[in-house]
Amino acid sequence: MDTALWHPFSDMAVVREDEFVLERGEDVWVYDAAGNRYLDATASLWYANVGHGRAEIADAAAEQMRKLAGYSIFGDFTNEPARALAGRLAGLAPMPDAKVFLTTGGGEAIDSAVKIARRYHVVRGQPERVHVISRTNSYHGTNGIGTGVAGIEANRTGFGEILPSSSRVAYDSVDALRDEIRRVGPERVAAFLFEPVIGAGGVLAPPEGYVQAVVDVCREYGVLVIADAVICGFGRLGTWFGVERWGVEPDLITFAKGVTSGYLPLGGVVVHGRVAEPFWAESGTTLRHGATYSGHPACCAAALANIDIIERDNLLQRGQLLEGELAAALQPLAAHPLVREVRAGVGLLAAVELQPDLFERLPSAVADLSLLIRQRGVLTRTLAKALAVSPPLTIQRPEINEIAQAFAAGLDELALKAGS
Ligand SMILES: Cc1ncc(COP(=O)(O)O)c(C=O)c1O
């Protein structure tokens, strides 16, 4: 049946009469309208970290909705869930005296972080510091600034020039960042934006020493460091904000997804006390920025209940424990003739990348493989040349093996289709 719903990142000419309708979820399982069960190997879009169907989160949100569903936090207005969530996240953040700016998702968090960084330089008397450097292959959402800094070329081009004062450097090179800061002129660079492990751009872990080294380079030149933990946070890398793995202290951290495990939309920016200080200490430095639903009480109540579950069920530790298991289960796929590489081992996420020559014979190879795996009851996420895996942190070992088996069988069938 034809649909009126325009799906994001989707070829509507194909999808319009062929939608895949999901109806309910329970832990790592989701069910379609016909009652078929699927293993959610990607936690939806990398976010259902505590799994599906948690009644406690639904109850917390519903209780808050009955009390006060929504109210703005502009000016001196606030509500208890928003205050409590900010306090809790500030306490968990790997930076002293953190402040928390709340948004409705990750893309809005990116735009907020970059605007805070630019305003910080303005109030500190360096208004020419506006340039933002990001990395090739990076994904920072599809709001204005996130589109402007996108390291996945196809997501940035075709919309006209969105953020002229920005540039990208090779995702794996510290020297490239240093050279770019010098080329632009350090006095013009506001911030460097990076995902600890690149997600949508292919699941690319940083080279050894990279994270510490880029933070050092930024410190040397007075450039603010924005860690985009939208995917990496809330247990995906086994810690609250991902970056703790490398022992660094960013100036700003963006988060979303796992903060509510997607039960309601929420994101935000954790800001180092030093960066927030001029705004908090001096009147007249108002940040003229923020969306209607910032600090939405029902969303914040859902986040608090979600964080309770992560703590109570030791899901950060579980993420650490399972990252090796996931890597071990998927690594044998690297021997398959259609597979170029399996990337896994840093966090509970992985990518299985296909051989480049396969795309000459079968341009739709990634989508085809995803469908073949879905037909075996496992949902994966298509990337440009790979399929991603990032299951809920509650996944069990037999289910991890089920993912690997579905990949192996799907790859064999794809090989038949590709005539190899
Ligand atoms: C690293 C990263 N940053 C930002 C975003 C944007 O988040 P949202 O889709 O909630 O706007 C995403 C979304 O996938 C992401 O992966």
Automatic annotation (TrEMBL):
Keywords: Aminotransferase, Antibiotic biosynthesis, Pyridoxal phosphate, Transferase. The keyword Transferase applies. Transmembrane segments: none annotated. It comes from the Bacteria. InterPro entries: Aminotrans_3, PyrdxlP-dep_Trfase, PyrdxlP-dep_Trfase_major, PyrdxlP-dep_Trfase_small. Signal peptide: none annotated. It holds the Pfam family Aminotran_3. GO terms for molecular function: pyridoxal phosphate binding; transaminase activity. GO terms for biological process: antibiotic biosynthetic process. Gene3D superfamilies: Aspartate Aminotransferase, domain 1, Type I PLP-dependent aspartate aminotransferase-like (Major domain). Belongs to the class-III pyridoxal-phosphate-dependent aminotransferase family. This is Adenosylmethionine-8-amino-7-oxononanoate transaminase. It comes from Amycolatopsis methanolica 239. The gene is bioA2.
